[in-house]
């Protein structure tokens, strides 16, 4: 009977080890793909921040919905900046990736504030505006450091 427990323990250990290997290591991408994914994250975050700012300036009832939708993009962008790494060689855009992560983090906190029941408080609105401004500054700086991608064949670009 003890051998059955030992087999179960070994199976659980192997499953935990496999999960750690899959989830615990950064995503490694080819240098071209790495740059494309970072540019895509930056573009998505920029669009979501623009929609959030428009909703904040409009001051209508859509602010909570806009904040909730934007928060998902900001959180996804932040976690992608934590996990992404180039497959080979040094990470030449590590500073831009870190700046993009900081922008996502600032935007995320602003969206949390604007999506809460305290969003009508003028102090909360002012703090959220300052966080969005800080996110804009970090995103602009990261955008300057990201490599420019050539246009897609055929003249269309998803970015």
Strand content: under 5%
Relative helix content: over 70%
Q: Which parts are unreliable, with pLDDT below 50 for 5 consecutive residues or more?
A: none
Summarize model confidence as the mean pLDDT. Answer: 85
Question: What is the end-to-end distance?
Answer: 60 Å
Count of spatially separate domains: 1
Which structural class should the secondary elements be placed in? mainly alpha
Largest sheet composition: 2 strands, parallel
N-to-C order of helices and strands: HEHHEHH
Number of helices: 5
Shape: flat
Please tally the β strands and state the result: 2
- What oligomeric state do the depicted chains represent? single chain
Q: How would you briefly describe this protein structure?
A:
By secondary structure, the chain is mainly alpha-helical. It has five helices and two strands.
Can you describe what's shown?
It is a single chain. With 159 residues, the protein is mainly α. The chain has one domain. Helices cover 73% and strands 4% of the residues. It has a two-stranded parallel sheet with strand order 1-2. The termini are far apart. The model has no long low-confidence stretch (mean pLDDT 85).
Topology:
Layout: H1 2-23, E1 27-29, H2 31-58, H3 63-83, E2 84-86, H4 94-114, H5 122-145
Parallel strand pairs: 1-2
Helix pairs in contact: 2-3, 2-4, 2-5, 3-4, 4-5
List the keywords.
159 residues, mainly alpha, two-stranded parallel sheet, 5 helices, 2 strands, flat
